[in-house]
TrEMBL record:
The gene is dxr. Residues 258-384 form the DXP reductoisomerase C-terminal domain. Its cofactor is Mg(2+); Mn(2+). It catalyses: 2-C-methyl-D-erythritol 4-phosphate + NADP(+) = 1-deoxy-D-xylulose 5-phosphate + NADPH + H(+). It comes from the Bacteria. Its EC number is 1.1.1.267. GO terms for molecular function: 1-deoxy-D-xylulose-5-phosphate reductoisomerase activity. 1-deoxy-D-xylulose 5-phosphate binds at residues 122, 148-149, 173, 196, 209, 214-215, 218. The lineage of its organism: Bacteria, Pseudomonadati, Pseudomonadota, Alphaproteobacteria, Rhodobacterales. The keyword DNA-binding does not apply. Mn(2+) binds at residues 147, 149, 218. This is 1-deoxy-D-xylulose 5-phosphate reductoisomerase.
C-alpha cells in the first residue's frame, strides 16, 4: 500500500485525485486530506478514504470539522501551521493542489521528508522555483508536474536529452474571451470570466485562463521546471485543448501530447509514474475531431504574457511579487472592486515599483530565495497591490 496525502482535496484537482484513489481502495493508505471552508466535503472525503488526518486551512473552522468527524477516529487540525505539519507526515506520494501561494510551505515539507510531490500548485514554482527544486534535490525527493501542459512536456521528454531540446510550446485554449472583441473585455463580468470553454476547474484558475494569467504562470513554471531559457518557450492558442504541449528538438522534430481535456490524465500519470496504468479518461476519436486549430496569441489581448517575460528577465523574487499581486488583483475582480482589464494593470504597476526599487519591496530585489524572504515578499506585494487598487479607486 502506498501512503498518500492530498493537499487541497476538496478542490477540483483534489476531487479528481480522490476519484482515482477511490477506484483502488486496496492500493492506498491515505495519511492526510486538507481543505478550506468546505467542511462537509472535507469530512465526507476523509471518511470515504479512511484518512488518518483531516486539516482545514482556517482556524475558525476547526470546531465544525471536529463536529463533522466526531466518533470517526479521524484526527482533525486547522490553520497554516497544521497544514505544514501535515506535509511533514511520512507519505510516499503527496498531491499539492492548494490554490495560490499557500501551497508552497506544505509542499516544501513534503519534499523535505523525501516524498514524491505531484505538483498541481504551479504557484510554488512561480514564487520559489529555485527553492523548491533545491529542496527536492537536497532530500532526494521527486517533483512530478501535474499541470496538463507540463505533464505533456514531461511525457514528450521521456528518453530524451535536454540538450536536444530547441523549444517548448505550451498550448492555451484562449479562455472564455478568446473570440470577444477587444473593447468589450473592459466590461467582462465575473460570471462571464468564470465559464471555461473546455476545462472544468476551480474558479480562480478559470478566471486566470480568461485573462491568460494562468498561461503566464505556466510559462514561468516551464522555465523553472525544465530549466530552459525564456526565449525557448512559446505559447500558442489552440481552442480545442487536445494538444496540451509540444517539444521541438534540434533536428526539427516536434513531439506533441494529445488527450481529452481531463485532468485525471495528468494526475494519473504522476500517480503511477514511471508506469502507465488504465485511466478512466475519454479516448480521442480523431476522425470525429476532424480538425485542430492554432493561432498566435495577440499581445494587446493578453498583457499577462508580456509581464511573465519581464518576470523571467528579472528572476529572483520577481515571481513571488508577480503571483501575489495577481492573487490580490483577482480577489479584487471577484469582489467586484476592479474590472477585468484592471487586473493586468495592477500587477504591472506593482512589478514596476518593485523593479524601480521603490516602496516597501525595495530591499527585496536582490534578497536570497529563502522561504522567509518569499513569504515576506508575498505579504508586502499583496499589501502593495491593495494600495494600488485603493489609489486607483480613489
Ligand atoms: P480549487 O479552487 O478547486 O481548490 C483549491 C483547494 O485549495 C481547495 O481544497 C481549497 O479548500 C484549498 N484552499 C483554498 N485556499 C486555501 C488556503 N489559503 N490555504 C490552504 N488551502 C486552501 O482549485 P483547483 O482548480 O483544484 O486548483 C488547485 C491548484 O491546481 C492551483 O494551483 C491550480 O492552478 C492548479 N491547477 C488546476 C487545474 C484544474 O484543472 N483545476 C489544472 C492545472 C493546475
Ligand atoms: Mg495548465
Amino acid at each position: 500500500m502506498r501512503r498518500v496525502s492530498i493537499f487541497g482535496a476538496t478542490g477540483s484537482i483534489g476531487q479528481n485525485t480522490l476519484d482515482l484513489i477511490r477506484r483502488d481502495p486496496a492500493g492506498y493508505d491515505v495519511v492526510a486530506v486538507t481543505g478550506g471552508h468546505n467542511i462537509a466535503q472535507l469530512a465526507q472525503d476523509a471518511v470515504a478514504v479512511r484518512a488518518d488526518l483531516a486539516v482545514t486551512a482556517f482556524e475558525d473552522r476547526l470546531d465544525d470539522l471536529r463536529a463533522a468527524l466526531a466518533d470517526t477516529g479521524i484526527e482533525v487540525a486547522a490553520g497554516q501551521a497544521a497544514l505544514t505539519e501535515a506535509g511533514a507526515r511520512p507519505a510516499d506520494w503527496v498531491m499539492s493542489a492548494i490554490v495560490g501561494a499557500a501551497g508552497l510551505a506544505p509542499g516544501l515539507e513534503a519534499l523535505k521528508q523525501g516524498a514524491t510531490l505531484a505538483l498541481a500548485n504551479k504557484e510554488s514554482l512561480v514564487c520559489a522555483g529555485a527553492l523548491v527544486l533545491e529542496t527536492a534535490r537536497q532530500n532526494n525527493a521527486r517533483l512530478l508536474p501535474v499541470d496538463s501542459e507540463h505533464s505533456a512536456v514531461f511525457q514528450a521528454l521521456v528518453g530524451e536529452d535536454m540538450d536536444a531540446v530547441e523549444r517548448i510550446i505550451i498550448t492555451a485554449s484562449g479562455g472564455a474571451f478568446r473570440d470577444w472583441p477587444l473593447d468589450a473585455l473592459r466590461n467582462a463580468t465575473l460570471k462571464q470570466a468564470s465559464a471555461h470553454p473546455n476545462w472544468d476547474m476551480g474558479q480562480r484558475i478559470t478566471i486566470d485562463s480568461a485573462s491568460m494569467f494562468n498561461k503566464a504562470l505556466e510559462v514561468i513554471e516551464t522555465r523553472e521546471y525544465f530549466g530552459i531559457f525564456p526565449e525557448q518557450i512559446e505559447v500558442i492558442i489552440h481552442p480545442e485543448s487536445m494538444i496540451h504541449a509540444l517539444v521541438g528538438f534540434r533536428d526539427g522534430a516536434l513531439m506533441a501530447h494529445l488527450g481529452a481535456p481531463d485532468m485525471r490524465h495528468a494526475i494519473g500519470y504522476a500517480l503511477h509514474w514511471p508506469d502507465r496504468r488504465d485511466l478512466p479518461v475519454a479516448r480521442l476519436d480523431l476522425a470525429q475531431v476532424s480538425q485542430l486549430n492554432f493561432r498566435a496569441p495577440e499581445d494587446a489581448r493578453y498583457p499577462a504574457l508580456r509581464l511573465a517575460r519581464d518576470v523571467m528577465a528579472q528572476g529572483g523574487l520577481a515571481g513571488a511579487v508577480f503571483n501575489a499581486a495577481k492573487e490580490r488583483a483577482l480577489d479584487g475582480f471577484i469582489a467586484g472592486r476592479v474590472g477585468f482589464l484592471d487586473m493586468a494593470e495592477i500587477v504591472e504597476e506593482v512589478l514596476t515599483r518593485f523593479q524601480a526599487q521603490k516602496g516597501p519591496l525595495a530591499g527585496l530585489i536582490d534578497a536570497p530565495m529563502t522561504l522567509d524572504n518569499v513569504t515576506q515578499t508575498d505579504h508586502l506585494a499583496r499589501e502593495y497591490a491593495d494600495k494600488v487598487m485603493n489609489e486607483r479607486a480613489g
